[in-house]
Amino acid sequence: MKFFLSKLTHLIVVFFGISVLTFLLIRALPGDPALALAAQSGAADPQLIAEIRSDLGLDLPLWQQYATWMLNILQGNFGESYRNNQPVVTGILNSLPVTAHLVFMAQVVSLAIAVPVALYVVPRRDGWLDRTVAVIVFALQAIPNYVLAMVGISIFAVALGWLPAVGYTPLSQGVWDSTASLILPTIAVSGLLVAVYIRVLRESTIETLRMDYILVGRSLGYSRRQLLWNFALKPSLPPLVTVVGLHVGVLLGGAVVVEVISGLPGIGTLLLNAINNRDYTTVQALVLLFAVVFVVVNFITDLIHMAIDPRVRETS
Amino acid sequence: MVRLRRFSYVGALAAAALALSGCSGQAAGGAANSSDRPAAVAEGVSAGQFGGQQLALGDPVQGGKLTWGVIMPVQALDPAGSMGDSILLAMASIYGTLMKSMPDGSAAPNLAESFETKDNLVWTLKLDPKVKFTDGTPLNAEAVITHVKNVAKEGSTSTDAAEARRITDMKAPDDYTVEFTLEAPNNQFDLRFTDGSMGMIPSPTAKEKAGADFATHPVGAGPFKVKSFAPGSEVVLVKNEDYKFASEGLPHLDQVTLRTVSEQTSRVDGVLAGDLDGGTVASLPALDEARNGGARGLEEPVYSAYYLLLNNQSKLLSDIRLRTAVSEAIDREAINQVVYQGMHKPLTGLLAPSHPYADKDSKWPSYNLEHAKELIDEYRKDTGTQDISLSVTTVPGGESAQVAPLIQQMLGQIGIKVNVETVDQTSAVGKFASGKYDTALVTRSIQSETTTALRQYFNTGSSRNWSHVELPEFDKVIQKAAAATSSEDRLAQVPEMLKVLADNVVTVPIVSAGAGRVLGPNVAGFPDGDPNSTTIERFDLSQVWVKQ
User: Fold this and answer.
1) N or C: less crowded end of chain A, CB within 10 Å?
2) Domain range spanning residue A142?
3) Any alpha helices (H) in B175-263, and if so which ranges?
4) Are residue A32 and residue A115 in the same domain, yes or no?
5) pLDDT tens, B266-324?
6) Are residues A100 and A135 in the same domain?
7) Angstroms from B510 CA to nearest CA on chain A
8) What is the CA radius of gyration of chain A?
9) Residue A301 in domain
């Protein structure tokens, strides 16, 4: 109970901290929403800008704008988009399934590749296969996700015609079609994750295999495979679980660029459009959403830690 | 020395062009083998009525669906305030336009029956009683007056707000007639109803019902109506069975999806991979690359060009010697070779060479490095200013990001330090409009009709006078053109306008722009675009048909 209360307090503090930072940072960007709205008519008439600013409540003192925004959020009202008067929540709910699907696929694919590869190379460490994997891991870390996205589209969509190049097919139109529309973006955002996960799991497993109880197991006649899978794997997982949790943020950041290149109507595209349009309410709501997701995922990570590591359970 | 420098970037171009052509050649080879893709030399392509290309493979076919990759996110669809390339395409399809542009630059009735004037001061619009909005209510005089008032109202972000405010009175002698009285004679008033805010009329009933939500629940009388709309993502339109021209088989398509694919390369890839049926590209090298990849490409009659915008009110550039020196330091041919693979045309005047009124007689300062240096020396001597620094504002991505470093290098040759400032599109427009910049790389469209654009861009006080030019002699010619009683008299003023602008070096023309449509194998009919539109992504979707 104490653990949960501590995490809830943590969540509330982070939520308010992020809300203040987001509120101030978006306003620190050059340009303002009133000018952006006026600029779509090609004009920047000071009177028009003043009228728009007044309509949007941007002429109020900062603290008053923040207080109004927070009070509305606490009542479940995240505001309306400056661009089309649509509730921000509606826009987010329209975009969320695309990004959630992408993030889920990216995590599943990354772990499905990284875990077996890492465990396969550990017993062969410093051999040619381990070195080859190290080179691939290095390359994957060095290649930006947008390059992977563009190369993937050129090869698998344009040249071979195997997969869609742009757009998202909703799950309601078929699981396979929907999954196929996200394969190339998934590959693009998974590249870095696969590399990081392989490195982390490989290092932690090697570390575990050096521990005394493994030596005892070896002297008792357990095979290398038995030692790895039955005794070394579970104690090696906590660092990987931590990194998986921490990389949800990286994944969401990477999704922004990849969604734009792949024409996916997800949260990343929504965020980029909102920033370009200085749509404060949408940007603020999205950053808060990211923060909450990040904190919740880390909370789940802690729970998993507790489940797989008795030492953590005891200290918690 | 000068030539050597020039050859250095031409050499870089050659290497880059070779590398690029090698890449695209491989892609072309791969794609051309596919039997269901059109050949690079496309059959059915012919010259269109507006000076671009059109596609017609056999007779028009009714039905079918089209997915079009649009350039910009479509966020809102209220013609009283929503603007932007792709938004105009969507709105024209939903609302239709009262008038339409003709190849000679004039306006002809579309949803309206007629729009006439005797003195250019009082204009009479006759509406067609048969035209109904898709909610069943009539497109009548009340609807037009209500909409024009919305466009003109305080706080309006419409591009036509200033024009609408020049209407001093609107009367409805009967349910289907509107009489507009203007504050001053304007022989082009009907053209304002061919595109943009004023010509697209929303249903007042639907607008009242939807309130602030109308921008996402639009109702018009155009060829299509909205089936679903996810702002920023896609708009799905379905055929309006009661469209005014339904008896002529328009629109041909049953359904159109306008899907946002902001990245030009992704749009082309989407067409090549078959995810999209088409999309617009904003440069001829991009169109060429798409053709090499196996897509069908139609060139569009864009009378737009790339300019180095000069803020004539800035401390340094208010001096004509500096404006002239900047113009003379820019090697347009080198930019064309390096950035556009020689496919565009260096400008010698304000208008693109293909433009019907391309200026042949006005003397715009062209590439002359020695004279540019002399002007800079003279300026330094007279003013005591040694450090001459200018900023070049540009937007990220696209060709302007490649042109900016070249401009920086070229102006550096005459001793002007250049700071390249990259800002997003929205901030850029805000800076230009408010005059908070020195120079900027922009694409500007000067439609075939010419005088409207020249007035918007250079008339004192115009909202789009981003060069912040104040030239009484130019304003006088504009007034003379507006008061002309015939198109011939009005257009006769164009050479004088161009001369005044050239004499004052108000901006720096660089190279002509180019645009095109990339079409997939499913598209069988596609119209020529409209050179009188302010956007390259403007064509009549009702005229498109696909194979069944």
Assistant:
1) N
2) 90-314
3) 196-199, 204-210
4) no
5) 999 999 999 999 999 988 888 998 999 889 999 887 788 899 999 999 999 999 999 99
6) yes
7) 22
8) 24
9) yes
Under DSSP, is residue B546 helix (H, G, I), strand (E, B) or coil? Answer: strand
Of A42, A81, A269, the CB nearest to B429: A42
Among residues A74, A99, A116, the one where a domain terminates is A74
Residue A306 lies in a domain: yes
- Mean pLDDT over B135-140 rounds to 97
Same domain membership, residue A217 and residue A156: yes
pLDDT surpasses 70 at B70: yes
The rounded distance, in Å, linking the Cα atoms of B37 and B294 is 6
The pLDDT assigned to B504 comes to 96
pLDDT digits (tens, 9 = 90+) for B392-402: 999 877 778 88
Give the count of domains, chain A: 2
Same structural domain, A62 and A149: no
Closest to B395 in 3D by CA, of B427, B433, B418: B427
Distance CA B214, CA B200 (A): 14
The residue-averaged pLDDT of A225-231 equals 87
Measured CA to CA, the distance from residue B493 to residue B229 in angstroms comes to: 45
On whether residue A48 sits in a domain, the answer given is yes
Q: CATH no. for residue A130? A: 1.10.3720.10
Task: Determine which of B113-127, B143-157, B251-265 has the lowest per-residue pLDDT on average.
Answer: B143-157
Neighbours of B434 (CB within 10 A): 18
A259 CB within 8 Å of a chain B CB: no
Smallest Cα–Cα separation from B349: which of B303, B407, B301, B316? B303
Domain check: are A155 and A95 in the same one? Answer: yes
Question: Contacts of residue B212 in chain A, CB cutoff 8 Å?
Answer: 80, 85
Which helix (H) or strand (E) element contains residue B277?
A: none
CA dihedral (B420, B422, B423, B429) positive or negative: positive
Chain B residues near residue A40 by CB distance under 8 angstroms: 81-84, 157, 159, 426, 429
| All residues at 6 or more sequence positions from B513 whose CB lies less than 8 Å from its CB, including other chains | B282, B283, B302, B304, B305, B306, B344, B352, B443
* Neighbouring residues of B330: CB distance < 8 A, sequence distance ≥ 6: B308, B367, B407, B410, B411, B508, B510
- CB atoms < 10 A from the CB of B465, how many? 22
| 3-state DSSP percent of chain A in helix, strand and coil, to 5 | 80, 0, 20
Residue A123 DSSP one-character state = G
Contact B123, B182 (CB under 8 A): yes
Q: Count chain A–chain B contacts defined by CB atoms under 8 A.
A: 171
Tens of pLDDT, residues A70-90: 898 888 888 888 777 788 998
Taking only the tens place, the pLDDT of each residue in A296-306 is 888 888 888 88
Look up residue B132 and give its DSSP letter: B
Contact B81, B158 (CB under 8 A): yes
- With an 8 Å Cβ cutoff, is A165 touching chain B? yes
* pTM (2 d.p.): 0.79
**Which pair of tokens denotes residue A199?**
């490195």
Q: Does B89 touch chain A (CB under 8 A)?
A: no
In whole angstroms, give the CA distance from residue B263 to residue A165. Answer: 12
The verdict on A62 and A25 lying in the same domain is yes
Cα–Cα distance for residue pair A41/A38, rounded to 1 Å: 6
Interface contact flag, A166 B156, Cβ < 8 Å: no
Q: Reduce the DSSP state of residue B35 to 3 states and report it.
A: coil
DSSP labels for B213-237? GGGGS---SSSEEEEEEETTTEEEE
> B160 near B151, Cβ under 8 Å?
yes
pLDDT value for B532: 66
Residue A1 lies in a domain: no
Q: Tell whether ipTM is more than 0.85.
A: no
Residues in B closer than 8 angstroms to A158, CB to CB, are 27, 30-31, 269, 272-273, 293
| A112 and A63 in a common domain | no
